[in-house]
Write a structure and sequence with these properties.
There is one protein chain. The protein is of the alpha/beta class. It contains 18 helices and 17 strands. The chain has helices spanning about 110-130, 145-155, 160-175, 190-205, 280-290, 305-315, 350-355, 360-365, 380-405, 415-435, 440-445, 445-455, 460, 465-485, 490-505, 510-525, 530-540, 560-570; strands at about 25-30, 75-80, 85, 95-100, 135-140, 205-210, 215, 255-260, 265, 275, 290-300, 320-330, 330-335, 335-340, 375, 545-550, 555-560. It starts with about 25 loop residues before the first strand and ends with a helix.
Length: about 575
């Protein structure tokens, strides 16, 4: 941590696909419902180009060369202890190991997935900002009951289906500017590791075999329930499987499932079959991070049964297995209701970014603390998009102004500028070190943006001493914050253009039509038809298009539709 004050750079990560392909080949029981199985292939790195490539965090030294103070110690809320704890890596000076449960790719990824993986991307970025080396593992569950059912429904090979949706997921993550993990293993490549772990659990007396199925015996693991706080009598069988009367205890869960007709299977000591849901993460986390590591993350819905079962499996296989911090993000509701297909409010990432810039969705998600439930509404998404446009427009104006004059006297910045920069730096590190309070970090850029707009556009600001140097220093510090939050675009200009295009699409209007409206309004004003002029402005405002009059004429920008502003005001 001593070097953290000297270098806070968070450069991009490249995916390292170290998955060890299992020697066991998946097979099928004879069935006419599925085509012949193709051997699954390793997932490629992110094939889709990200909407923006995240810029590196700038140095923590202040713009006038003064060294920044050491960042506050990071604290994280640990689900297992139910309290906020100082982060102490298992290997000081070594790698931080972080495992986050990935998707089961059988359908398009939804905003609940976006919420989880944006949250852990922020943690990944901030750990790197604090100068930790991080080995981040996020898996794909590419064989599962849901995948098989969907493949049967579509008449598609299950591995082909999971590969297709995995690629789509990676594209979604790239659009949201989530850095690729260090390793992205797939279940189908780790059958050997899974089988070996199950054998160890059986040898240690915590699992039993029934007609080719292998079940974990919760009665033989006294620690069961400590993560979720559930008593054994209250526990139920895993949510993805029906209760099996062959179980010794209804809470026992499947480690290995005997093969069924039309399903892929692998050989095992207990007969042909495939892994249960939970065992995969225990085996793959041990493969890439060891039996003990620092952080295990996922959605709140995974606390029980998935993560509870992971702990039981891992410790039953290796009594020394332990994870220091269990970190979970909160649920996503839609208009105050739980998101579900049955309610018709199931919203995919692709549905959102069809009409909104992906980073507007990211900003919306970061506007609520990761552990709190978040309520998705179009009104709040419009607010996030509007805030993003204001931020990038201010930074773009700054960029244009400072490019016009590259001179720098080398003298120190004005005191007010230095104080503003130091305050932003301090508030960013303090809020992020306090269990990743992104809401506070986002709010912290408000004052510097206001100062920049004063320097750019007010008569008093334009006369301020060291104006351009102050603008440049403020932009650099805001860029550091945006990079830490994954909101830094590769180009302010391109981001603004994309935000404008999305706004036009939402309004079902073309830019040519907007410009025609502006001309009509200009003509009405010249003719002193002020009622008509106001009517045109109001028509566009209702569509989320704001008009701005200036010395060079009238321009337009995206805005929160006027009909929603009262709703937004009442909810804040």
């Amino acid at each position: 941590m001593a070097a953290a004050a000297a270098r806070r750079a968070a450069t991009g990560l490249f995916p390292l696909l170290l998955s060890s392909p299992s020697r066991a080949r998946p097979r099928y029981r004879e069935s006419l419902t599925l085509p012949a199985l193709l051997r699954p292939r390793r997932l490629p790195p992110h094939s889709a180009r990200p909407f923006f490539c995240s810029a590196a965090l700038s140095s923590s030294t202040t713009s006038n060369g003064a060294a920044a103070e050491r960042a506050p110690d990071l604290h994280l809320y640990n689900t297992k202890s139910r309290k906020r704890e100082p982060f102490r890596p298992r290997a000081p000076g070594g790698e931080v190991g972080m495992y986050v449960c990935g998707v089961t790719p059988y359908d398009d990824s939804h905003i609940g997935h976006a919420r989880a993986y944006v949250a852990f991307d922020v943690l990944f970025r901030y750990l790197r900002y604090l100068d930790y080396k991080v080995r981040y593992v996020r898996n794909f569950t590419d064989i599962d009951d849901k995948i098989i059912a969907r493949a049967n429904q579509l008449g598609e090979d299950p591995f082909s289906l999971s590969k297709r949706y995995s690629d789509d997921f990676l594209s979604d993550m790239a659009n949201l500017q989530c850095l690729p993990p260090s390793v992205e293993p797939r279940v189908s490549d780790h059958i050997d590791q899974i089988v070996n772990m199950i054998k160890q659990i059986i040898d240690n007396g915590c699992a039993y075999v029934v007609n080719g199925d292998v079940y974990f015996s919760v009665d033989n693991f006294p620690e069961y329930g400590k993560l979720s706080g559930r008593k054994l009598d209250d526990n139920r069988a895993g949510e993805r499987v029906a209760v099996d009367e062959r179980k010794k205890n209804p809470a026992d869960f499947a480690l290995w499932k005997a093969a069924k007709d039309g399903e892929p299977w692998w050989d095992s000591p207990w007969g042909p079959g495939r892994p249960g849901w939970h065992i995969e993460c225990s085996a793959m986390s041990a493969q890439y991070l060891g039996n003990s590591f620092d952080i295990h993350g996922g959605g709140e819905d995974l606390i029980f049964p998935h993560h509870e079962n992971e702990i039981a499996q891992s410790r039953a296989a290796c009594c020394d297995s332990s994870i220091n911090y269990w970190v979970h993000n909160g649920f996503v509701n839609v208009n105050g209701q739980k998101m579900s297909k049955s309610l018709g409010n199931f919203i995919t990432i692709r549905m959102v970014i069809e009409l909104y810039h992906p980073l507007a969705l990211r900003m919306f998600l970061l506007g609520t603390h990761y552990r709190a439930p978040i309520n998705y509404t179009v009104e709040q998404l419009n607010v996030a998009s509007d805030r993003l446009y204001y931020t990038y427009q201010t930074l773009r104006d700054c960029e244009v102004s400072t490019q016009q004059d590259q001179s720098n006297s080398g003298d120190s910045l004005p005191y007010t500028t230095t104080q503003c920069i130091e305050k932003l730096h301090r508030e960013f590190e303090t809020s992020m070190s306090d269990d990743l309070h992104t809401t506070v970090a986002l709010a912290a850029i408000s004052e510097p943006l206001k100062v920049m707009n004063d320097l750019l556009h007010t008569r008093k600001g334009k006369k301020q001493e060291k104006r351009l140097e102050s603008l440049s220093a403020l932009e650099e510090k805001i860029r550091m914050v945006l990079s830490g939050l994954g909101l830094m675009p590769s180009s302010y200009y391109e981001a603004l253009q994309q935000l404008r295009e999305k706004a036009l699409r939402r309004a079902s209007i073309t830019e040519e039509q907007v410009l025609q409206k502006i001309e009509q309004r200009t003509s009405a004003r010249k003719a002193k038809q002020y009622a008509r002029s106001d009517e045109i402005r109001d028509e566009l405002a209702a569509l989320g298009i704001a008009l701005m009059d200036g010395p060079d004429g009238t321009a337009w920008r995206p805005s929160v539709p006027s009909s929603e502003q009262a709703v937004v005001a009442s909810s804040t």
